[in-house]
Amino acid sequence: MIHLRNTLSSMALALAVAGPALAMEALPEQPPVPVDNPQTAAKIELGKQLYFDPRLSSSGTVSCNSCHNVMATGTDSIRTSVGVEGKLGGRNAPTVWNAAYLSSQFWDGRAATLEDQAKGPILNPIEMAMPDEDSAVEVIRAIPGYVERFQAVFGGDNPVTYDNIAKAIASYERTLITPNSPFDNYMRGDKKALSPEAERGMKLVQDVGCTACHSGPTFAGPATLATGQPFLQRFPIFLDNEYVSTYKLDVDPGRFESTGKEADRHMWRVPTWRNVALTAPYFHNGSVDTLDEAVRVMGKTQLNIELSEAQVADIVAFLESLTGEIPQQTMPILPMTSGSWIHTGN
Amino acid sequence: MIHLRNTLSSMALALAVAGPALAMEALPEQPPVPVDNPQTAAKIELGKQLYFDPRLSSSGTVSCNSCHNVMATGTDSIRTSVGVEGKLGGRNAPTVWNAAYLSSQFWDGRAATLEDQAKGPILNPIEMAMPDEDSAVEVIRAIPGYVERFQAVFGGDNPVTYDNIAKAIASYERTLITPNSPFDNYMRGDKKALSPEAERGMKLVQDVGCTACHSGPTFAGPATLATGQPFLQRFPIFLDNEYVSTYKLDVDPGRFESTGKEADRHMWRVPTWRNVALTAPYFHNGSVDTLDEAVRVMGKTQLNIELSEAQVADIVAFLESLTGEIPQQTMPILPMTSGSWIHTGN
């Protein structure tokens, strides 16, 4: 059972500063932390090592950071990601920045937590492609520097487990926050933080209906959603337009692929707007190259409206105001082994 | 024309501490710096950004760091490197750590400088695979944050050039130094820094003849070699042993491949011993998994001797004493673009 530490204080902040009518709020300082995986400095550092360690892939060449680059956009900035042996994934890599605030993970919300999410790509045959959990654990267990660190962080007789690998990675990911976007500064009272265009865009996304779904601190759904409760919507809704065919927006069946339920066909988690100006290309298939085109597509496919170019420009200006500060980080130093070659690939 | 700043002081240090008879010396504090590419903090930071930027590859997925990982061994720790689209290279990635001290670059010494070396993989069709220099320059020039930084570092009307990309990367690489190995501490007077095994190994590598080639501060050749003067040796020399066939050591024709000269067939640059305990797998084709086996192979193929297991263990202990300190680094933050997708691949 996972409890959220910060839900109440986040809501209070939202009510106090923005008011419920806006359904917009500044990014809370800290994301929720599950009670069974508290943050510690040593666990975060271990998680950072694992996040950057390509030995967790069958080829020894792909790490979490390969597709979720924390020196940049938190994505790989390509249409769909490339895994081991040049294999091409089916969906665009979501940004890891502020993922800790989301109530579910993956495009279809099939993982409840960052911990659950971290376990996926390592075993996905077109991503990191480890044959099974035990193989991943074996790789880490064969590196004495890791065993020491897992012992220090998790204790017990058998600290190197797949669960603990995921816990450490998730703890690191909970530090991947981009605060102080112009929008956040605006919400905290600096009314000059937004340009007139961005202010018009902020009003417009509410007036035309974008924020019916893109609400809350990450603009990915209501702030009140509990962890594990995905905020799902159908996409595309309006099919009779050229965007759907040009960008092949209705080919992927969405959440149906993981649940097999007809009701989940073309259902998707509402994606965050945080840093969306940086995370081109857009949509689950990465088919749209620019933010202005993505805004046009959304207007037509979700609201059945044709936004004017002036409206698009204002909305883009607002979305650009949601770009936060990428934090300075130190590089991890990966535990190394002397004189033996330990992974399976190549 | 490139001049070496530190050659004289390095030599003086070597003579003073180790004496020429040993042909061994501690790692000089700073590597040579070419007069036409002086080190500056801004250039080093720009070079670090470029070193980590996968946009310099045709697929947008491969950076310098993909194969020369500065959070670990300075290599990719696999047999031969993986480039764009999962393409497999023909040779094992040499470590970037302390490459700045080497008198030539690449396994066959075909690049005179780090600047020359940096230009290779970006255009190599099985590595980063940019179609030509102009394409690489175009990618960088399309990113306003880079244009600003190149302007600040290099000035002039046209600061983003392929030469300047290489200069910045090389400047960063000149900071990739691993000081204070047990051996270095020993050479500076701490006689307890080496174990008895390592001390025996140090004597042994001189007695049996390893240091005829593996000499100088990096154990990659004489300290007196000017930049651009590769220290080449034939490998393998003695062919009538099982190692040559088992590990396919004579398949790759070495420097012949780049020069086409018969005299260069099976000629290779002498590789560094610095951090060699970390840089498995071994040899140009990455065919040997462990350091002890690599030592056996070298004894047989280069000196035609069968080292005893005790001798191998002592030599390995000495080689392990050449593992230096991996420096703490900050992560670069790559210049990002808003709302447009700029590279060519995928």
Question: Would you kindly provide a written description of the structure presented here, covering whatever features stand out?
Answer:
- 2 copies of one chain form a homodimer.
- With 346 residues, chain A is mainly alpha-helical.
- Chain A folds into 2 domains: 31-173, Cytochrome c-like domain (Cytochrome Bc1 Complex, Chain D, domain 2, Orthogonal Bundle); 183-320, Cytochrome Bc1 Complex, Chain D, domain 2, CATH 1.10.760.
- Helix content of chain A is 35%, strand content 2%.
- Chain A has 13 helices and 2 strands; from the N terminus they run αααααααααβααβαα.
- The first copy, chain A, has helices at 7-18, 41-51, 64-67, 114-123, 133-141, 144-154, 162-173, 182-187, 196-207, 242-246, 256-259, 291-303, 309-320, and strands at residues 232-234, 267-269.
- In chain A, α9 crosses α13.
- Chain A is globular and about 65 Å long.
- The two termini of chain A are 41 Å apart.
- Mean pLDDT of chain A is 92; it is low at 1-21 and 342-346.
- At the A-B interface, loops of A face loops of B.
Any key phrases for this structure?
homodimer, 346 residues, mainly alpha, Cytochrome Bc1 Complex, Chain D, domain 2, 2 domains, two-stranded antiparallel ribbon, disordered N terminus, disordered C terminus
